[in-house]
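Service request form, structural biology core

Requester: graduate student, group of Dr. S.
Request type: structure prediction, single chain
Budget code: on file
Notes: please return the result as structure tokens.

Sequence provided:
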Amino acid sequence: MKLVKKIFIISFLLLLLIYVTNITQIPEKIVLLDGENLELPIALGLKLSRPEESESILTSTSVQNEVTKIKNSKYQLKLFGRIPLKDISVNVIPKTYVVPLGNIVGLKLYTNGVLVVGMSEIEGIDKIKYKPYENTGIEEGDMIVKLNNEVVTCTADLLEKVSISNGNEIQVDYVRDGQVNKTTIKAIKATDQNYKLGLWVRDAAAGVGTASFYDPVTKTFAALGHGILDVDTDELLNISKGEFITTKIVSITKGEKGNPGKIQGSIDNQINVGNVYKNTNFGVYGKVTNISALNIDTKNALEVASRDEIKQGSAKILCTLQNNQIKEYDVQIQKIYKDNNDNNKSMLIKVTDKELKEKTGGIIQGMSGSPIIQNGKIVGALTHVLVNNPEMGYGVFADLMLKQARQIY
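Core staff response, request fulfilled:
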């Protein structure tokens, strides 16, 4: 009898896990291209319906991907068609034309709070070495967002708040894995007469990459095809704002097997193009405020291809390698991972252009974001190079990038 009871409890917990997993995996906002199917993992007893309708439009009798065509609307996920669990907003993007770019650009990103990137002992005015951060719970990779309930906006702001603490206990709010934690810390007066916490922090990051496209309808841009990671934590940088600026190419290092090449650019004294609002796994996105800075001509707009239209075979990429001139180069789309929505490795790309291979060895850092064109449509953008074969790399689907861009509209 006890065994039966245990089996029942385990079965119940497994069923509960399936339900919780299904519910948490379904986002509250979904963006689709016109004609694209809505694919959701729906478990037994879960139903998706419009609040004003009594009949569900999506049901399932087993754990699988169900598909249905939908329109712009609000939907509700219900248990057994009666108990509301989650509201879902679905937005369908009609046939869309964007301007493929290929410009080398600079990106300056600013974080929410300050990022802890290191720790070190402090020699106090009494010549004793202290570790104020010890036993506080603060670790490298944490984001300090408040001191004494006041928002920390940048490194200078943190230094000022620590300075006026006069060595008194400071309440610290810091974020780790999306969770806000609280602790206290006391600053030590160092030999240079300044109060210090022993924490090395940073509030900004900068990089060079390639702009992918400009959306004339929303005046948004997409760049890189992948996110900017923090160099110290290797995590996606959580930003509060950013700047999109022009860049001057300083040098190009050719890629070789085991040694990726790169485009070295200067972002000093360059022109502001717009503002960055999102740093995602599928690229960096924002609004263009100075269209002339990139010589964008909306007459050059191309349709965003659906995944069904992408074929293995010849394609072109657009990128800038010298004199701020955008050029076309030949590539081959060798594999297409049509059902991949989880990461930015949607297509396997091989560089076939002789001139490009002579200049760069293939795909190098800084070319990420180069738009991929096939049959007169934009199908995606370069994202990664294979370290052991610089002629090979990955591209991300254009529809994934467009959806990200439209979410800031």
